Amino acid sequence: MPAAKAGRQSIKNARRNGSVRTATRTSIAKALRSVDSGDVETATTSVHEAIRSIDLAVRKGLMHRNAGARRKSRISIRLNKL
After folding, report:
1. For the chain, which terminus, N or C, has the lower number of CB atoms within 10 Å?
2. Does domain 2-80 have CATH number 3.30.450.40?
C-alpha cells in the first residue's frame, strides 16, 4: 500500500514541478540568447528574470543551491562582459 501512495505522490509532484522546471530552462535559454545578441538593456532584464527563476527552482528544491549559484554566476559573468 505505501508504494501505491508514493506513486501517486510522485505523479503529483512531477506535475507541480514540471512547470517550474520548464519555466526555469526557458528563462535561462532566453537570457543566454539575449546576451549573445549584444543588446545590453534586453539582456539585463532577461538575466534578472532568469536569476529570479533559478532562485525559485532552488527554493522549491528542483535545483541544488550550489548548482543555482553556479548558473547565476555564469550568466552574470556573460552579462558583465557586455
Report:
1. N
2. no
| Mean per-residue pLDDT, 18-32 | 96
Tally of helices (H runs) and strands (E runs) in the chain = 3, 0
- Residue 66 CA to residue 80 CA, distance in Å, equals 21
Neighbours of 48 (CB within 10 A): 15
* Burial class of residue 8 (count of CB atoms within 10 Å of its CB; 0-12, 13-18, 19+): exposed
Enter the pTM of the model: 0.87
Break the chain into its structural domains and give their ranges.
2-80
Query: How many other C-beta atoms are found inside a 10 Å radius of the C-beta of residue 28?
Result: 22
